[in-house]
Amino acid sequence: MSKPSYTLTFDDAVQIHLLIWDGELQSRIAAKYDVNGGRISEVNTGKRHPGSAKVAAEIYRHRRSAA
Fold it and tell me: Which of 47, 24, 4 is nearest to 16 (CA)?
């Protein structure tokens, strides 16, 4: 029996938003976190870890203004 895939945390979801906005493919993000691609889609649409996009947006803005 195989072990279950990883369970995404809120912090993971924030990082996933940042990766998507940086142009990373959802399939590659899913492989990186060892989860089904549907979980990445749920994060991206806000169904999983609501509020993570808002936190990611703040980080993204800060990152861009520091550059």
Answer: 24
